[in-house]
Amino acid sequence: MSDPIAFLRPLSPQVSVTGQVSPTDMAGLHAAGFTWLVNHRPDGEEPGQPDAAEIARAAEAAGLQAVHAPARGLPDAGVVAATRDVLDAMGPDDRAVFFCRSGMRSAAAWAMARRQMGIEADELRDAAAVAGYDLGGVPL
């Protein structure tokens, strides 16, 4: 990704999603004000994909807090819990980038976690739709 910021899709003022990021994107994300990076992509999903440990090392070196919560298909309870833990830990000035291959699993994990936090399903689906993600099939 040549300019990771250009590909971010905001779901809320604090959380944006995107497709695959690379270790070289981390300094730019931090410079843009992001403090967290949540990787919802399993290692080895496709050839040439940077592994989670490599991305986490680069993220932490750039000043981001990195979390790996891999989802295969619809996020399971563990992925949703890890995503919610990040949302709960974020301060009012923190911003996070969630990513997977396309951003869809990250958008679903965010919405499922936010639903557990009491946000209405329609509000979450609307926010995801504005970002380009159809969560109609996600159980909220």
TrEMBL record:
Per its UniProt entry, which superkingdom is the organism in? Bacteria
PROSITE patterns in alphabetical order: RHODANESE_3
- SUPFAM superfamilies noted in UniProt: Rhodanese/Cell cycle control phosphatase (SSF52821)
* Gene3D superfamilies attached to this UniProt entry: Protein tyrosine phosphatase superfamily (3.90.190.10)
* Pfam families listed in its UniProt record: BLH_phosphatase (PF04273)
GO MF term (any one): hydrolase activity
Report the residue ranges that make up the Rhodanese domain in this protein. 84-120
Write the protein's name. Uncharacterized protein (TIGR01244 family)
